[in-house]
Design a protein that fits this description.
The chain starts with 9 loop residues before the first strand and ends with a strand. It has helices at 24-33, 41-52, 80-84, 104-118, 135-143, and strands at 10-11, 15-19, 56-63, 66-74, 89-95, 123-129, 147-148, 154-155, 158-159, 172-179. The protein has a single domain (5-179), classed as Aminopeptidase (3-Layer(aba) Sandwich), CATH 3.40.630. The longest helix is centred in the middle third of the chain and has 15 residues, at 104-118. With 180 residues, it is of the alpha+beta class. Helix 1 runs antiparallel to helix 2 (41-52).
């Protein structure tokens, strides 16, 4: 995979997208905790380690010098269909509430799709939750050309069997794909 992070930096006058650094772990965690989102420090330590190992890439968005959001690319998805078909997955796209509606999520996905394409992939996958907190993301992905993978509702990556009960939480969702 092309991983020269020194050249992976895009920016506008206000927004900079750059690779994650180890020092970002604490900033990210504290920023999301300040808006009552459960994003523990250990999660970002794991992401950084996976980035160092080539399993994942993480891009950070800064708005006027302040942390604003991030996105990750999981090169070998945990979702079996993507894994079997060698489809990298854009995972865990998050923008702080105070920075939403400024084009940050769009720039993060643009960067992720660009890197995936540069690494020779022609299809990208993404998962999305189903309750109202995910409404903006659901609409955004459809507008960007993502289509449902046709495998139906998933809970923790496994197909939901009709008649079974599942919790409506962050692990309940559908997966989508896009040709690059």
């Amino acid at each position: 995979m092309k991983r020269n992070h020194e050249t992976i930096r895009i920016s506008t006058k206000r927004i900079i997208i750059r690779p994650m650094k180890e020092i970002d772990c604490e900033t990210i965690s504290k920023s999301f905790q300040s808006q009552n989102w459960n994003k523990p420090y250990q999660l970002y330590e794991k992401y950084f380690t996976e980035q160092q190992n080539g399993e994942r890439d993480v891009f950070i968005a800064e708005y006027e010098g302040e942390f604003a959001g991030y996105v990750t690319i999981k090169w070998k998805s945990n979702y079996s269909y993507f894994q079997e078909n060698k489809i990298p997955e854009i995972k865990d796209l998050n923008t702080l509430i105070k920075f939403q509606n400024k084009g940050i999520a769009t720039m993060l996905i643009d960067k992720a799709e660009e890197m995936i394409k540069e690494n020779g992939y022609s299809v990208v996958g993404i998962g999305v939750g189903l309750y109202s907190d995910y409404g903006i993301a659901q609409r955004m992905y459809v507008k960007r050309g993502y289509n449902f993978d046709g495998r139906g509702l998933m809970y923790r990556g496994e197909a939901v069997i009709p008649g079974n009960n599942v919790f409506v939480d962050d692990d309940l969702g559908v997966f989508m794909m896009k040709k690059l």
